[in-house]
Amino acid sequence: QVQLVESGGGLVQAGGSLRLSCAASGRTFSSYAMGWFRQAPGKEREFVAYVSRSGGSRYYADSVKGRFTISRDNGKNTAYLQMNSLKPEDTAVYYCAGRTDVYYTTRVGDFGSWGQGTQVTVSS
Question: How many alpha carbons lie under 13 Å from residue 112 in its C-beta half-sphere?
Answer without folding.
Answer: 9
